[in-house]
């Protein structure tokens, strides 16, 4: 299998400055499949209230990371996208290295999975704004 590894040293600033404290380890693209390794540092302020004594990464942060990474990796604007489906299987801890894998489907929707080690943390589908029906 052929792939390329890109070390993301100059990853662009995140839309939400309060969420910009994260660590991207590397990204590799295998044909149309994308895989990104990331972690949310334990010093991130979100862990002060989510949850005291037993901090976990909020689901909204995981989804936001998926949206932002898809935009960066594919150049496809996800502004106004719809979460067609999202399921959270197990909590992610501060500083834990997470693996985001996603694929673009024929209808331009995005299927993603987030793993922490050997366990699935979250999975879902995103639909870009252009594919959303008003009905």
Structural account:
It is built from one helix and seven strands; from the N terminus they run βββαββββ. The chain has one helix at 59-74, and strands at residues 4-6, 23-30, 33-39, 82-88, 98-104, 110-116, 119-127. A hairpin with a 2-residue loop joins strand 6 and strand 7 (119-127).
Runs with pLDDT <50, length 5+? Answer: 1-21
* Number of helices in the DSSP assignment: 1
Distance between the termini: 43 Å
Largest beta sheet, briefly?
Answer: 7 strands, antiparallel
Spatial shape: elongated
Cα-based radius of gyration, to the nearest Å: 15 Å
Structural class: mainly beta
β-strand percent reads 35-45%
Give the overall pLDDT as a whole number: 78
- The portion of residues assigned to helices is 10-25%
Widest β-sheet, arrangement of strands: 1-2-3-5-6-7-4
Summed up, what is this model?
Helix content is 12%, strand content 36%. The chain has 135 residues and is mainly beta.
Give the helices and strands, then pairings.
Elements: E1 4-6, E2 23-30, E3 33-39, H1 59-74, E4 82-88, E5 98-104, E6 110-116, E7 119-127
Antiparallel strand pairs: 1-2, 2-3, 3-5, 4-7, 5-6, 6-7
What structural keywords apply?
1 helix, 7 strands, elongated, single chain, 135 residues, 7-stranded antiparallel sheet, mainly beta
């Amino acid at each position: 299998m052929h792939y390329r590894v890109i070390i993301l040293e100059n990853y662009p600033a995140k839309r939400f400055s309060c969420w910009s404290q994260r660590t991207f380890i590397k990204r590799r693209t295998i044909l149309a499949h994308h895989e990104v390794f990331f972690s949310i540092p334990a010093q991130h302020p979100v862990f002060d209230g989510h949850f005291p004594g037993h901090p976990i990464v909020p689901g909204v942060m995981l989804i936001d990371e998926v949206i932002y990474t898809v935009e960066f990796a594919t150049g496809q604007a996800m502004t106004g996208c719809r979460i067609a489906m999202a399921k959270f299987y197990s909590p992610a801890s501060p500083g834990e290295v997470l693996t985001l894998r996603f694929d673009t489907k024929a209808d331009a929707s995005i299927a993603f999975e987030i793993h922490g080690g050997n366990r699935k943390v979250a999975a879902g589908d995103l639909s870009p704004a252009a594919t959303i029906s008003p009905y």
